[in-house]
C-alpha cells in the first residue's frame, strides 16, 4: 500500500486527510496519463456525502485542465461506474465515496479500463505527482481543453442491465431494502420494482450527512427489526456506495457475505456454473464456511483482506464467485467488482429456483463464534514477529486444533495488530484472544 492509496482507494476525512487539492491533482494526472495519445474520456460517479460535490468538481477541473473530457454520472453506485467503464470504452472511472465510513470521510476510488481497481503502479505514480509535482504536466490550451458531459444515461443503462439478469419474476415476494441513505437510493428500488417485487424501502432519503448513520449493512439490526415487523420474505442492506450486501432472512437472521457465498456457490455448483467448483474468500471468512464447503464438495482459496485481492485471484485463475464476509461479493460472469444490488438479485434467484426460504438455504452453515480485538502497538512488524507472541499464537493453535483458528495480522491503515479467534464457544474465543494480548502487554509492545 502507498502513502495515500490503500486497498480501496484514497480515503480520509474530507478536507483534512483528503482535500480538494488532492482531488484536483488526481484529475490532472489521470487526464494527462490517459490523454498522451488521444483525448481521454473519464467517467465520474459519487455517493451522497456532502463533500462528494466538491470532490466531483475538483476532479472534473483537474481532468479538463489536462485535456480530458469528464463524464458525470452524478449520484450512483461504485459497481455502476465499473460497468459503464468497461461497456462504454472509457479510459478509466473514478468513484467518489468512502463506502461504509461516516459522512465526514470521503474517498477516491480509481477503476481501470477493465472495470477493476486501478493497478498499484499507477496509484504510485499519482502519489509521486501529488507530493513532488513529477512529471511536470502541461495545461491544455485552446480547443484541447476538456469539457464536462452530463452522463446520467450511463446509470440508467446500468439499471437496465441489472433488470436483465434475473430469469424469473420476483412477483409475490415481499422484499425489504435498506439503502443506507447512500448510492443505492438512486438504483435499488427501481430494479426490484421492475422485477415485480413488493418492495419496502428504508433509509433512502439522503441529506448529505446521514449516509451509513444507524442504517445499512453496518447497522444490520435496523433491517432485522424492519423485516420481522413487516413480515417480509427477505431483506437486503447495502453500504454507502452499494458495493456490499448483507441479507436478512424472513425470520430476522443475518445472512452475511460468508453465508451468501455458500448459498450462491452451492446453487451454482448444482447448475454447473461454479467454475472450477471453487469460491475465493479472504482470510477473514468464518471456519464454518469452509467446513460447509467441504461437505458440499466446494473448493476454496484464501486471499489477503480486500475485495481487490479476491478479484485478482478470480481473474488470474478463472473462478466465478468470490467475496468477503463483509458483503463484497463478486460474480465474475456479470461484474468485475463487488456489487451489492447484483448480489441481492443472485440470492433472489436461488430462493426462487430452489423454492426454499433463505433461512433454510443458509442453515447448512454453522457460523463459529468469532472475537476480534484491535491492539495499538508502537511497531506492527515488531509486535507481530515477537518470539513470545509467536509462541503464544502457536500454543493457541495447538489448543484449538481443528475446532477453531487464530489469525493475528497487521492493520493496513492503523498502528494496530488485529487478534481474531474462532472457536465453538464465545468463552474460548475470549480466553484465547486475551492470552495473546496479555503476552503482547508483558513484552511491552502495546501503547495507549
From TrEMBL:
The active site is at residue 99. Its cofactor is Mg(2+). Residues 372-437 form the Alpha-D-phosphohexomutase C-terminal domain. Mg(2+) binds at residues 99, 239, 241, 243. It is an enzyme of class 5 (isomerase). It comes from the Bacteria. GO terms for molecular function: magnesium ion binding; phosphoglucosamine mutase activity; phosphomannomutase activity. It holds the Pfam family PGM_PMM_IV. Residues 3-133, 171-252, 256-365 form the Alpha-D-phosphohexomutase alpha/beta/alpha domain. Its EC number is 5.4.2.10. Binds 1 Mg(2+) ion per subunit. GO terms for biological process: carbohydrate metabolic process; peptidoglycan biosynthetic process; UDP-N-acetylglucosamine biosynthetic process. Keywords: Isomerase, Magnesium, Metal-binding, Phosphoprotein. It comes from Candidatus Pullilachnospira stercoravium. This is Phosphoglucosamine mutase. Belongs to the phosphohexose mutase family. It catalyses: alpha-D-glucosamine 1-phosphate = D-glucosamine 6-phosphate. The gene is glmM. GO terms for cellular component: cytosol. Activated by phosphorylation. The modification Phosphoserine is found at residue 99. Catalyzes the conversion of glucosamine-6-phosphate to glucosamine-1-phosphate.
Amino acid at each position: 500500500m502507498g502513502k495515500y492509496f490503500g486497498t480501496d482507494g484514497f480515503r480520509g476525512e474530507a478536507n483534512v486527510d483528503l482535500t480538494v487539492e488532492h482531488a484536483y491533482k488526481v484529475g490532472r494526472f489521470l487526464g494527462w496519463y490517459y490523454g498522451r495519445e488521444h483525448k481521454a474520456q473519464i467517467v465520474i460517479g459519487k455517493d451522497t456525502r456532502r463533500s462528494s460535490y466538491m470532490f466531483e468538481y475538483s476532479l472534473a477541473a483537474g481532468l479538463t485542465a489536462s485535456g480530458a473530457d469528464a463524464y458525470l454520472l452524478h449520484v450512483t453506485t461504485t459497481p455502476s461506474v465499473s460497468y459503464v467503464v468497461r461497456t462504454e470504452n472509457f479510459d478509466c472511472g473514478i468513484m467518489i465515496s468512502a463506502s461504509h465510513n461516516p459522512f465526514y470521510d470521503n474517498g477516491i476510488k480509481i477503476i481501470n479500463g477493465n472495470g477493476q481497481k486501478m493497478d498499484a503502479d499507477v496509484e504510485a505514480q499519482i502519489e509521486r505527482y501529488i507530493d513532488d509535482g513529477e512529471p511536470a504536466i502541461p495545461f491544455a490550451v485552446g480547443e484541447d481543453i476538456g469539457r464536462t458531459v452530463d452522463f446520467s444515461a450511463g446509470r440508467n443503462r446500468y439499471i437496465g442491465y441489472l433488470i436483465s439478469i434475473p430469469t424469473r419474476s420476483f412477483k409475490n415476494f415481499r422484499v425489504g431494502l435498506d439503502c443506507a441513505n447512500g448510492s443505492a437510493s438512486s438504483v435499488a428500488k427501481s430494479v426490484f420494482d421492475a422485477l415485480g417485487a413488493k418492495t419496502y424501502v428504508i433509509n433512502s432519503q439522503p441529506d448529505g450527512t446521514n449516509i451509513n448513520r444507524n442504517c445499512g449493512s453496518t447497522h444490520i439490526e435496523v433491517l432485522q427489526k424492519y423485516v420481522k415487523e413487516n413480515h417480509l420474505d427477505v431483506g437486503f442492506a447495502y453500504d454507502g456506495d452499494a458495493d456490499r450486501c448483507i441479507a436478512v432472512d424472513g425470520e430476522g437472521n443475518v445472512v452475511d457475505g460468508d453465508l451468501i457465498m455458500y448459498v450462491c456457490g452451492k446453487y451454482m455448483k448444482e447448475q454447473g456454473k461454479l467454475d472450477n467448483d471453487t469460491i475465493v474468500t479472504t482470510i477473514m471468512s468464518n471456519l464454518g464456511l469452509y467446513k460447509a464447503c467441504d461437505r458440499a464438495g466446494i473448493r476454496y482459496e484464501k486471499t489477503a483482506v480486500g475485495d481487490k485481492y479476491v478479484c485478482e485471484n478470480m481473474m488470474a485463475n478463472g473462478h466465478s464467485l468470490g467475496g468477503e464476509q463483509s458483503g463484497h461479493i463478486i460474480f465474475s460472469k456479470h461484474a468485475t467488482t463487488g456489487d451489492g444490488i447484483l448480489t441481492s438479485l443472485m440470492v433472489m434467484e436461488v430462493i426462487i429456483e430452489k423454492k426454499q426460504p433463505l433461512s433454510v438455504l443458509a442453515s447448512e452453515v454453522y457460523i463459529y463464534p468469532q472475537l476480534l480485538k484491535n491492539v495499538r502497538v508502537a511497531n506492527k512488524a515488531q509486535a507481530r514477529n515477537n518470539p513470545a507472541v509467536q509462541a503464544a499464537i502457536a500454543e493457541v493453535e495447538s489448543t484449538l486444533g481443528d475446532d477453531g483458528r487464530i489469525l493475528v495480522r497487521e492493520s493496513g491503515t492503523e498502528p494496530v495488530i488485529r487478534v481474531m479467534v474462532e472457536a465453538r464457544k464465545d468463552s474460548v474465543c475470549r480466553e484465547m484472544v486475551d492470552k495473546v494480548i496479555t503476552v503482547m502487554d508483558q513484552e511491552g509492545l502495546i501503547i495507549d
